Amino acid sequence: MFGRGDLRIDPAAVTAGALMALEPQVARQMRDVPSLAERPGTTATPKRGQGHEIREIRPFTEGDDPRHLDAAATARTGSLQIRSFHEDRERTLMLIADFRRPMLWGTRGRLRSVAAAEALVLAGWAAVLDGGAVGVVALTDAGPEMQAPRPRHRGMAEVAGAIARAHERAVAHRGEVRPLAPDLLRAARQVPRGAGIVLATGLDHEGEGLDAALAALRARGPLRLILVEDAFELTPPKGALPYLGPDGPAYGSFAGLPDMRDDRAERLTQPGQRVQRLYASGAVR
After folding, report:
1. What are the tens digits of pLDDT across the range 201-224?
2. pTM for the predicted model, two decimal places
C-alpha cells in the first residue's frame, strides 16, 4: 500500500500534520478491500477475541461492550469507564525508518527519506485502523530514537511526531554517517516478540553484519523490507559522471546500478522477509 498522500507535502521535509493527513487514504483503501476473514466459506474459524491483559482504561463510548465496564475507574472519575484488553494475538507493528545521511537526497519527486517516512506511516495507519498498536525506531546519524508501540489514533499521533522530529534532527546533523547494521541490531532489541516489522531504507553504508542484523529482526517477527530507490538508481545517465567519493572528487559510470538493484532485491527475498521496492517518486514495484 504505497502512494502519495497530500500533494502539498514538502518533498524535502516531514511534518507530523502531513503524516496524520494520510489516514483517509488508508481508510478508503481498507474499505475497498474485503477482509478475507469476513468472507463466507466452507470452514468456520473463530474470530480473534479479547485477551486477559488490560491494554488501557478509557471513557465508555457507544458500541462498547458494557460487560467490560470498570467499576473502580467509573466510581473514581464519575463517568463510565471501560477496560480495553489486548487481543488473544497481539497485533503490534514496529516501523524502522532509516534517516541517516545517505537517505537525505533525491533527484526527482521526494527525498528518499521523505518517501520512506510516508510509506511507513501508511503501513502504520493500516495497522491502527485494524485495531493494532504501532511504534517506531528512527535511525539517524545522531543515534537511534524510539517510540514504544501504542494503540489508536493517539498512538499514531505519537509515531508521526517522533518520525517528524527525527527527520528534522537528521537533516540538521553534521556528524559522520553511522553504519546501518549495528543500529538495526539495536533496533531489533526494541521490537516486541511476535510483532510485525516494516523497515524502510536504501541499505546504503551497511557496515559489517547486515545479514545478521536482518536475521535478528526476523527472529522477532515477520519483516517487510521497503527498499527506497531514487530515479537515478533505476535509470542513471549514460557515461562517466563526476562525484564526491571518500577520497575526494572522482569520475565514474553508474550504468550498472539498475542490475545491481534488481540482484539485491532478489537476494534479500527469503522466508520471513518480504521485499518491496519503492520509487522515491511514489510508485512501487
Report:
1. 999 999 999 999 999 999 999 999
2. 0.78
> 16-26+89-279: what CATH class?
alpha beta
Q: Which three cell numbers stand for residue 265?
A: 532485491
Q: How would residue 56 be classed by pLDDT, with cut points 50, 70 and 90?
A: confident
Find where cell 557496515 sits.
207
The answer to whether 196 and 92 have CB atoms below 8 angstroms apart is yes
Cα separation, 265 vs 285, in Å, equals: 11
What is the rounded distance in angstroms from the CA atom of residue 258 to the CA atom of residue 264? 10
Q: Collapsing DSSP states into helix, strand and coil, what is residue 200?
A: strand
Assess contact for 211 and 223: CB atoms under 8 A: no
Which stretches does DSSP call E strand in the chain?
50-59, 81-87, 92-98, 133-139, 145-151, 196-201, 223-229, 240-245, 248-253, 273-279
Q: Which residues contact residue 202 at a Cβ distance below 8 angstroms, ignoring those fewer than 6 apart?
A: 98, 102, 103, 112, 227, 228, 229
